[in-house]
């Protein structure tokens, strides 16, 4: 058994021993081993085919759209015109964590994202908790965004052929429906792209991202014509508490900037391109979010905002008095939100791939198709799960549950970057967080602050989710972990 704490001084394997439960829970996976295993799965390897452009588009595709197209209508009633400030606060929180992600992604360029970073720095139990949070972040956000896609599909159908899907087939139980068929359909379409290969999926995503950015620029150009400065007279009607609450909800809109870090084993030059892709995508996303939110509130009094997922299309229609522009935006949103589903689903499959390779979840998730170089069974299972979830659970509950899981995982990443700096100070890093450990500490603090702004119900859901995860770990992962009894060939 290796000592997975500090590396042995002589560079060789540690003496065999039988550690207790506490030691086994803290066993760490050396960075060199994580990198050496990169790309290797059961029966095949992932293909390195993604450059800086594709990685940046993956992060933008996974992020841009969720907050603006879907959650804006829920956030404005909480903060009023100060929702623009809420976006800035959420973006600042994301920035601190993005810096930590950038350093770790360049240092440990593997598919597991923050799960792998935690495994290398804080031990297996913390890594499992982080990975379980990522399942909540990625898997549930796929479902949440798919629900919003269905809303815009109805807007598009209404504006083009004058009909909409019946509520029973376009909304989940609790929202007036029986089964959300559009949400299931968009997840299945994303699955089809992913099964074709990473390069093909990246190409499709790039086209959809360009459509998405074009749609938001179009909204600003049209929406500014209805801008009324009087809509900003009472800028913060609900106080800082409202701004904070809206910021916590809007943090959901930044979920995905870390998606590039899940592509570490399929990037051509991961150490150089991953940090750049993460920071570049976040800068573009934040600028667009703040601009669109400012135009939206200027064009429509904040008290008139509802929790409709098709808020921007409604504003376009109200400003122009014509249904054409709203219909066009709805069409762009249908394409754009599909890219979020595609890229976030991609990230979920790659995280499960890494966890499966470590033995913490069943081996089926690490099987790679020799023909396409993708985890085929993994993609099928995750897609079916997310599709059914999208069809059966209301959006609002999903968004808040996703936010708390994401914030917790981000908090751990900020800790991991400090731990790795101290335990492996001489390790080559293609990017370094400036003013460390101050900025990681601020990132950690902001994450905890925003978690505290979420509702009690969300915390209860999170607690139940974590309890289920720990039960699964101790019944399965703890005993089957590859670090529990490494093969002789692995003891390097």
UniProtKB/TrEMBL annotation:
Annotated Low complexity bias: 1-20
Membrane topology value: Multi-pass membrane protein
Entry's localization field: Membrane
Region (Disordered) residue spans: 1-22
Chief localisation class: membrane
Keyword hit for Iron: no
Keyword Transmembrane: yes
Transmembrane segments: 52-72, 84-104, 125-149, 179-197, 209-227, 239-257, 278-299, 324-347, 377-395, 401-420, 432-451, 457-476
Keywords for the protein's UniProt record, in alphabetical order: Membrane, Transmembrane, Transmembrane helix
Matches recorded under InterPro entries: AA/rel_permease1, AA_transporter
Name assigned to this protein: Amino acid permease
């Amino acid at each position: 058994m290796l000592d997975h704490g500090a590396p042995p001084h002589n560079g060789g394997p540690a003496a065999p021993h039988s550690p207790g439960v506490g030691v086994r829970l803290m066993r760490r996976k050396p960075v060199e081993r994580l990198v050496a295993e990169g790309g290797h799965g059961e029966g095949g390897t992932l293909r390195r085919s993604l450059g800086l452009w594709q990685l940046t588009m993956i992060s933008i595709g996974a992020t841009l759209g969720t907050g603006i197209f879907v959650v804006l209508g829920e956030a404005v009633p909480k903060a009023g015109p100060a929702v623009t400030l809420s976006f800035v606060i959420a973006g600042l929180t994301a920035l601190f964590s993005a810096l930590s992600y950038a350093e770790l992604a360049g240092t440990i360029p593997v598919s597991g994202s923050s799960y792998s970073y935690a495994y290398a720095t804080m031990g297996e139990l913390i890594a499992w908790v982080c990975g379980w949070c990522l399942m909540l972040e990625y898997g549930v956000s796929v479902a949440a965004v798919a629900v919003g896609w269905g809303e815009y599909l109805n807007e598009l159908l209404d504006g083009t052929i004058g009909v909409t899907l019946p509520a029973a087939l376009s909304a989940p139980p609790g929202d007036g429906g029986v089964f959300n068929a559009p949400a299931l359909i968009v997840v299945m379409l994303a699955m089809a792209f992913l099964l074709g290969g990473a390069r093909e999926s990246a190409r499709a995503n790039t086209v959809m991202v360009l459509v998405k950015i074009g749609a938001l620029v179009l909204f600003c150009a049209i929406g500014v014509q209805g801008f009324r400065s009087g809509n900003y007279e009472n800028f913060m009607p609900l106080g800082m508490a409202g701004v904070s609450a809206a910021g916590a909800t809007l943090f959901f809109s930044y979920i995905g900037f870390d998606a590039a870090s899940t592509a570490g084993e399929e990037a051509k030059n991961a150490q150089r391109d991953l940090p750049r892709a993460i920071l570049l995508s976040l800068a573009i996303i934040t600028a667009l979010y703040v601009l669109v939110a400012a135009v939206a509130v200027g064009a429509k009094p904040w008290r008139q905002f509802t929790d409709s997922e098709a808020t921007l299309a409604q504003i376009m229609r109200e400003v122009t008095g014509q249904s054409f522009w709203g219909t066009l935006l709805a069409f762009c949103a249908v394409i754009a939100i599909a890219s979020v589903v595609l890229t976030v689903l991609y990230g979920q499959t790659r995280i499960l791939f890494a966890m499966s390779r470590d033995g913490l979840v069943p081996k089926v998730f690490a099987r790679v198709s020799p023909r396409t170089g993708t985890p085929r069974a993994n993609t099928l299972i995750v897609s079916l799960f997310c599709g059914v979830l999208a069809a059966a659970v209301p959006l609002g509950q999903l968004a808040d549950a996703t936010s708390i899981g994401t914030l917790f995982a981000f908090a751990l990443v900020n800790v991991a970057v400090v731990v790795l700096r101290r335990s492996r100070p001489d390790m080559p890093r293609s990017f370094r967080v400036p003013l460390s450990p101050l900025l990681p500490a601020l990132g950690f603090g902001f994450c905890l602050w925003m978690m505290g702004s979420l509702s009690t119900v969300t915390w209860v859901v999170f607690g139940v989710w974590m309890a289920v995860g720990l039960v699964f770990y101790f019944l399965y992962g703890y005993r089957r972990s590859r670090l529990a009894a490494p093969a002789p060939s692995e003891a390097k």
